[in-house]
Task: structure prediction
Amino acid sequence: MFNDDSLKFLHRLLDTPGPSGFESAPAKVWREQASQFAKVRADVAGNSIADVNTNGAPTIMLAGHIDEIGVIVTYIDDEGYAYIAPIGGWDPQVLVAQRIRFIGRGGDVFGLVGKKPIHQIKHEDREKASKITDLWVDIGANSKKEAEERLSIGDAGVIDSHTMEFPNGRLVSRSIDDRIGAFVVLEALRRYSEKPGAAHVVAVATTQEEIAWGGGGALIGASRVNPQMAIVVDVTFATDHPQMEKKEIGEAKLGGGPVLTRGSIISPVVFNLLRAAAEANEIPYTLQAAGRETSTDADAIHIAREGIATAVVGVPNRYMHSPNEMVSLDDLDRAAMLVAETCRAVDSTTDFTAR
Ligand SMILES: [Zn+2]
Result:
């Protein structure tokens, strides 16, 4: 189970802004927590790496990406309005009228996303969706010069929102994708460190997933860690709210336990280890199929070095890529337990070859 410190850490981690390529603040929070029970390092891509049972074998990499989607300043006009481009996959409708928290050189800079009032929008245009290029950010400046004293082209930002707990053990935050993956792998490592098995286990808070799941931080991290096996923890679409198509994406509900992916890039060996650990420890789970890439760090990790036996553990998440993503704390707890127990089941006799 979680301890109080774990949950305090989770809130701090979620509320620290860190869009892809700008993850250093949440990475610092993660490494500080990891250093309580693991050997910690960082690399050139911004990945944070925490080792337990360093002399054990084989080596297992647990990957959760610590970045989140955000925006970047592209231009500031003469009136001091800033224009932005997306970092990662936005629905521009979600950005309209939000407050933005930029990571400025001198600290936080707050702005709001402006749009013409409905009264001023022509009738024929009212049904049309906003494009990100139709929007601007007002930081309360009087001029370009004044704006540039606080904000620069290339500064990144996130929606300014705070983590909340909802009834039934639910957690709401803008950065659940995939700060909770970075949290779960560290929580799994902490539990593993209390009762280690034979394996050397390395948790990695990877960077840049939202802009390049085929490479970026995960590939660099896997090359450095050189594991024989990897488990990626990422969010997956919960299908227990209106308008989700179960026939296409399968069944995943909040509180239903972790979602195990079977599919073309998934190692059947690691999948079987996960399923066996879930069954042995009575952890509920559901299955998800991926006939091609998974759109997670697994796509990069499984082809790193000479090939790494990789599987994905999903956490059902509602309202992906919005300021109010929602997961169940029970699912985080069970995902951490499942990953820790799976690591304990691996030893030097485990054969990762696909036969
Ligand atoms: Zn995402």
About this structure: The first helix runs from residue 4 to 15. The chain has two domains: 4-68+174-344, 70-159.
